[in-house]
Amino acid sequence: MSQSRRCSFPVRKYQRGKAIVVTTTFPTCLRGRVASGSWALSKLDRVQRDLSKSLFKLGCFDFVVDTPAAAIPVTVYKPEQCDENPAVFVYFHGGGWTVGSRVNADSSLKYISSRARCIAVNVEYRLAPEHPFPACMDDGNHVTSWVLKNRLMIGATESSPVGIGGDSAGGSIAAVVAHEVKPLAFQVLVYPNIDLTYPYPSYKEFGAAEFILSEETIQWFRSQYLPNEKDRIHPRASVVHQPSFSNLPPALFIVAECDALRDDSYEYEKMLRAAGTPAELVLFKGLLHGFFHLPGHYLENCPLAYDHVVRFIQRHGRSSSAR
Prior knowledge:
Layout: H1 2-6, E1 11-16, E2 19-24, H2 37-54, E3 58-66, E4 71-79, E5 88-92, H3 106-116, E6 119-123, H4 135-149, E7 162-167, H5 169-180, E8 187-190, H6 202-205, H7 215-225, E9 251-258, H8 262-274, E10 279-288, H9 301-316
Parallel strand pairs: 2-10, 5-6, 5-7, 7-8, 8-9, 9-10
Antiparallel strand pairs: 1-2, 3-4, 4-6
Helix pairs in contact: 3-9, 4-5
């Protein structure tokens, strides 16, 4: 038991088809569980403090992006050790289109920005139910277009490649923005929600409350975001209903195995590949929805996930073949 508290289990990585699978070697009943007790809480506090204050040296700047409907706050992170022609990573936080804020992604983006030597833009899009569909999609498009037009203002260069990303609901925003805003160099989709009719087996398999994102919670989020049931199959709400999946930027999927949204990533990756869009998927065995922004709990797997994102940005953020 003391070993499980310390989360000191070895980690293996192996190839399964075209997906990378990351698995821990501790018992199935403990897989993906967070470190518990006072040790975990003190560790979380320390990790978050380090990420926010002393671990990475970077500048943080706040901007307000004026759009036709609202003023959207964003935070820009630029590390001291930045590439001469840095990539720009525009990110949308999760929260069922209804809760959360850009603070959720603060520590993760500081890590990724510093390690990838890129500029990150953390977006505070409007939330339901006050601002239902398609408000957040409009905000995503406007902010990404603003970044493309104002790269010099945020510390990049006129030729800096721009990519997008997001987790959960934010991943659905990023996926739609990739269809509607050009040119983009890459997209990072962290357990995205890509079909709001919820047709995949993982919704039932991991729909119990013990798996964090329950069926009941999912349906509540959807009711706040999509008051009109007809919008569930709208291509801007459920990206699988877009007319084409070719000529999109390369995609990286970060996926938790024990997640109701797991099969969304499986399905969308297959659709992108079938259309000729480069896509790769990293599956984290035993982990739950929401793990990506909990580095104080998932002490080994969060850095592994971040490093996959870092390498993806470095690989595609230095290419001039934006789509």
